[in-house]
Amino acid sequence: MAEEHYVEDLADKDDFSQWYLDVIRKAQLADESPVRGCMIIRPYGYALWENMQRLLDDRIKATGHQNAYFPLFIPESFLKKEAEHVEGFAPEVAWVTRGGGEELAEPLAIRPTSEAIIGYMYAKWVQSYRDLPLLYNQWANVVRWEKRTRPFLRTSEFLWQEGHTAHRTEDEAEAETLKILIEVYQDFIEHELAIPVITGQKSDAERFAGAARTYSLEAMMGDGKALQAGTSHNLGQNFAKGFGIQFQDIDGERKYAWTTSWGASTRLVGGVIMVHGDESGLQMPPRVAPIQVVIVPIWRKEPEREVVAAAVTSLEGQLRRVGVRIHTDWREETPGFKFNDWELRGVPLRLEVGPKDVQNHQAVLVRRDSRPRAKEMIAQDQVAERVQQLLGEIQQNLYQRAVDFRQSRTYRAEDFATLARLMADREHLGFVEAWWCGDGACEAEVKAKTQATIRNLPLAQPGGEGICVYCGRPASRWAIFAKAY
């Protein structure tokens, strides 16, 4: 990809797919890899992921989980121990059949997920009810041999965290599944990424292979499509029975453990781009932005540069002391070029300092989230305090905008004709709320005729009954239908 930054070269957001690819390239988040379906995450994109990783990891550890690491390679026989699991993942598994020039006695899967290898180890580690619960998480890469790929959203290799827990009772496992969904994932995505999500249970057709129940968080992107932002699975005893995770309970009986797994990945980077980005490029939520404030010194002649540099050094010290992530742009480019470049990269605040500003003991603060750009003159000794206030305002503003957009693109359908019409309207595409009878055949027909799927059955159900949006039979489940990435 060429090193281009010009905002005017961005595709129009009406061509959402090309706009998305342009933003990733021009903002230098990622680049193409010579390996099909893989991507190279560049420093700016990786800094965003590191900030997200740190904030999510803090939440995971705060709920009592510990980080560990498990092997990349999984013996074929391990995957076969849970039949539904291996069937669900078979089309996506990449295999190693040779090593060091020799055929392997048993093929090794490159992990698409780690339930199998972790289940094997849990069977060794769990002997008594006193060994439970096991609350482990790992940060790793996984490989799923995708046919159609898109940077961050769906790649053959991606980065994620995957939690795996084992419990004494079914109720404990269900509580864990919902705790991760709401207290960890929803809290992180909404408060740190400024992305509103709908939490709910997946239908059987969308359930994780081998799970008893799958819960998800669904977010609306800037084109009205849905993005599954994370999943939390109650695995029941399926994997425990497959791998022999048994323990002697307090009553002396041997019992199978109840297990869970849950994960969130670099597709959240794609979510940040598609929820908050605009015609000028990225808009980074301040809490995860690699750079929260960019300082742009403005000068014409060398004596002016020295005067401005002294003021910039003072401002840098102020901001660093209060923990603001900053960058000062001393490149030999015009101020206009720099302004456009950093707006493309989505930096929440720009701080301009020129000779007249130094003379007047002030600086100019410019918000990325305003249109036209809101400029504010601020005394230099008040910059740190004001920056902190504005970063909080921008974070909240981005979240509220996303909420408002989702509300404006959420519809209700009483019959299939309405659902089909809404799903065919590309200009106003969004979420459609409707009753569903629970029959997988109705769900499959809706998907075949509209390309829309049930994203989830929201935890916040309206109660009562209605009629199924497809077949017209009595229905007690309220579902979110949408086209999805």
Structural description of this entry:
It is a single chain. This protein has about 475 residues and is an alpha+beta fold. The chain has three domains: about 270 residues, Bira Bifunctional Protein, Domain 2 (BirA Bifunctional Protein, domain 2, 2-Layer Sandwich), CATH 3.30.930.10; about 100 residues, Rossmann fold (3-Layer(aba) Sandwich), CATH 3.40.50.800; about 70 residues, C-terminal domain of ProRS (Translation Initiation Factor IF3). About 35% of the residues lie in helices and about 25% in strands. The protein is built from 14 helices and 25 strands. It has an eleven-stranded mixed beta sheet with strand order 3-7-8-14-11-10-9-22-25-21-20, with helices on both faces. A five-stranded mixed beta sheet has the order 16-15-17-18-19, with helices on both faces. Helix 13 links the parallel strand 20 and strand 21. Helix 2 crosses helix 6. The longest helix has 26 residues. It is globular and about 80 Å long. The mean pLDDT is about 95.
